[in-house]
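Training component of the fellowship. As part of building independent skills, the fellow (R.M.) carried out the full modelling exercise for a liganded target. The chosen ligand was PPS. The inputs are recorded below so that the supervisory panel can assess the work.
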Amino acid sequence: MEKVEPFQFLPLQTIRGIPFLSCFADRWADVESFQARPDDLLVCTYPKAGTTWTSEIVDLILNDGDLEKANRDPIYMRVPFLEFAVPGVPTGTELLVDTPSPRFIKSHLPVQLMPKTFWENNCKVIYVARNAKDVAVSYYFFHQMAKVHPKPGTWDNFLEKYMTGNVSFGSWYDHVKGWWEKSKEQRILYLFYEDMKEDPKREIQKILKFMEKDLSEEVLDKIVHKTSFNEMKQNKMTNYRTLPTTIMDHSVSPFMRKGIAGDWKKHFTVTQNESFDEDYERNMAGCPLRFRTEL
Ligand code: PPS
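Fellow's submitted model of the complex:
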């Protein structure tokens, strides 16, 4: 990897009304013109909703549970991040051009920004949604350790920005609702982080079925075990510790931080929780999606 210069907590830029990391926005044209292929498989989430977890599950499935094969590279090399663009590191689209089919791709794009070739090619997408409060906390800590983000300010400042969608990738509400609507017309498996925590084997079986794969009970159990939070936290191929500290500083907050449902309770004040709930009701009015904020 080339030497990566330290980041300066750059401000966000807007792409078609959606706030974006400025270094990602600089390479937006490459994403917009991206050529999807019919056998591409995409995992998409709002940030901090379980992308890495789901990516590791799918990569193990694609490799029939072979741990050595799955450990061939760090997760961010095995599963290129479509819109990723940081100076000095190959961009997502650069990596993908050279990736042989079938490709497995990660994205955080809101549905309306997905390159249209994904829909033209009827690509399969696994979408993972996580409750808005745990995402807010996880995103706040991530802003502190992943230097491509603007400075988050205090927790209270950050929560306000998050609630108004003034963070990278925009509004959580629009993201989960937009992908939900799209799942009615495209090949999209819509999963919930909390369901994966509750019963990972059941949710992995849903993924297997969606991928039209069949694995023995023994291999399935191995995948459940290897993709548990504790295993992935220890595994340098999944815990992001192979990245330079100029990109992610785990001494500030580890990427594999808590991995639970309900951590928000340790961070939201009573007042923050009340105003969040009110705002949530307004934003989710008429939407059938139900999220669990604890298990
Ligand atoms: S990113 O940066 O947006 O791609 O992050 P993403 O991978 O979507 O989400 C990171 C959060 O997911 C937690 N995580 C897990 N939880 C449970 N089990 C497993 N195996 C697992 N792997 C990652 C990770 O700890 C982040 O959540 P928080 O709440 O910060 O711990």
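The panel noted the following from the submitted structure. The chain has one domain: 16-283. The pocket of PPS is lined by residues 45, 47-53, 134, 138, 141-142, 227-229, 232, 256-259, 263 (CB under 6 Å).
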